[in-house]
Amino acid sequence: MSTPVTTPYLPEATPQGSRLVEMQGIDVVPDSERTARPSDLFWPWFAANVSVFGMTYGSYLLGFGISFWQATGVALLGIVLSFALCGIIAIAGKRGSMPTMVLSRSAFGVQGQKLPGIISWLTSIGWETSLTITATLATATVFDRLGWSHGTTTKVIACVVIAAIVVLCSVLGYHTIMKVQSILTWVTGAFTLLFMALTVSHIDWSAVSALPTGSFAKCVGALVMVMTGFGLGWINIAADWSRYQRRDASAAGIVFWNTFGGSVAPVLLVVFGLLLAGSDEKLKAEIPNDPIGALASILPTWVLLPFLLVAVLTLISGAVLGIYSSGLTLLSLGIDIPRPAAAALDGIILTAGTIYVVFFATSFLAPFQSFLVTLGVPLAAWAGVMIADILLRKRPYDEAALFDSRGRYGSVNWKSIAIMVVASVLGWGLVINQFSSESWNNWQGYLLEPLGLGTRVFKDGVFSYWDGTWPWANLGVICSLLIGLLGHALLNGGTIKRQEERA
């Protein structure tokens, strides 16, 4: 595409007038539609992250072998920091009023952006699928406890219904999603408090306080997991919701409301999840295979149905944000179809992925964690580049140039591409596949032995496990983020200055 689409397809009767389906794609949002305030960002971020699924991270964090207080500190730091990084990315939405991956053309070039765009699309698809999987498994487990289960039939119906709701909401567009999210915020928030009240008696403080203290390296590994599982999992779509902000909106306000909205619920939920998992070894062990179903097992029967409804709604809330944005990313790659069609296409992929994991895979946590770490490395590199780009720029984007390979941002910024590739190669060398069932991922960690950070142990000539503490820290994610940030600032600072002078 060489010229921008400056006349977007807008609802003829939403705030300004209204069609049932909003057709706004990757084109520039006109000023007449940019009426949102920074505080409006609280609703989608809170609703997408208030899910009781956040409590399951208590089990995951304690799995690193750290104490309750260490895990609490890790959760607070990792969640707030990762959503603050999202907040910085969200500033770009105000400056350019376009989706995140279109705005990243300023750093990578109009055509060069396709490399991080593909990574972003795969990440979003993975997150949407994981949320849909969790909702499907939760439905089957709760129905079984209620005596309504019919085995595979229940899972099939749950999968189809949940996927249909996710796709429908994402197809209807931004204004529908924002209204739905504001309602879900109150409903899910209130019920989450009820869940806590009903399960607080399950907490055994003596068991929690007796958890052994882990090493610094284990804390680093837990921190990386929290950051990739929360803020960094959303960072590639952070500007998609701020592009409707007024041009004079406060950048500091955007960062604050994005960070506060995204982190306030997860911090409380993870800490409560730590208390539950630390009190009950059986619960801690069951959560990895069926997160929501395991939490439902400690509830009284009379509250299971409303628990299921709210748990599924919160998971759907997150999936809707993801599939809406993955559709926009698909369009940014040059796929010339309407935005609703892009969302529907992603919905088909989401459903297929859910069917595979629910009916054929033997574990939920293993493929999910391997996926997070593997794609988290290049995504962290992109985030570092993009954060540096946003911090170095002082002017609004040249919106026309973001669609023109001959414009000020060029076709391909080879320096940025090289930074991302180098950061990813080094990053993958410092992360490992933590799950024996995912042997396809054993190629990672190739720099750990040369650097003296760990040793591969083989049995009968076959790789068995990593010996040492640092391999489990997954330093590659942080390394990749920092290389992207510093590399772009050093190598492209002059380029950005020259681009700004052309304004």
Write up what this structure looks like.
The protein is mainly alpha-helical. 63% of the residues lie in helices and 2% in strands. It has 19 helices and 2 strands. The chain has a two-stranded antiparallel ribbon with strand order 1-2. β1 and β2 form a beta hairpin. α1 packs across α8, α3 (68-96) packs parallel to α10 and α7 crosses α15.
Element order, helices and strands? HHHHHHHHHHHHHHHHHHEEH
Number of beta strands: 2
Largest sheet geometry: 2 strands, antiparallel
Range of strand content:
under 5%
Widest β-sheet, arrangement of strands = 1-2
Supply the number of helical segments. Answer: 19
- Overall body shape: globular
> Roughly how much helix do the residues carry, as a percent range?
55-70%
- The mean pLDDT is 82
Write the layout of secondary structure elements.
Layout: H1 42-49, H2 57-62, H3 68-96, H4 100-103, H5 105-108, H6 114-146, H7 152-172, H8 174-199, H9 205-209, H10 216-229, H11 231-234, H12 251-279, H13 281-286, H14 291-296, H15 304-332, H16 339-359, H17 365-392, H18 414-428, E1 455-459, E2 462-467, H19 475-501
Antiparallel strand pairs: 1-2
Q: Would you summarize the structure shown here?
A:
The chain is built from 19 helices and 2 strands.
Task: Looking at this protein, list some descriptive labels.
single chain, about 500 residues, mainly alpha, two-stranded antiparallel ribbon, disordered N terminus
